[in-house]
What does this fold into?
Amino acid sequence: VARRAWRDHGKAVHYFRFAADQGDAKAQFSLGHQYNRGEGTPQDQAKAVHYYRLAADQGHAEAQHSLAVRYAEAQGLPRDDAKAIHYFRLAADHGNAEAQTNLAYCYAQGLGVPQDHKESARYYRLAADQGID
It folds into this structure.
């Protein structure tokens, strides 16, 4: 149903909220995305983070990556490199290529982790195996 409502962001938010309240991680992530972008609802970074966290806690890799970026860039959360690395690693271990690339960069630069070119190469290789340049 939410798929048909996608062009009507207000309806999508309604259906995502209903499913999110039932514990559906994909809906929680999608609702977080709607709050993040202000589509169908006023933009609200605190609510975006809330729904991303609910989905991330259920193992949703995109939500884990979204939380990592927010911690790394202080978007709606205080900057926290340790938490950013934690969520990048969770998402990377769930196969999220963007998180693998971000984690590889962190290892290459020594951002939030000790600089480690072997780990950097390993994560870049994992992302490349999925078609990420």
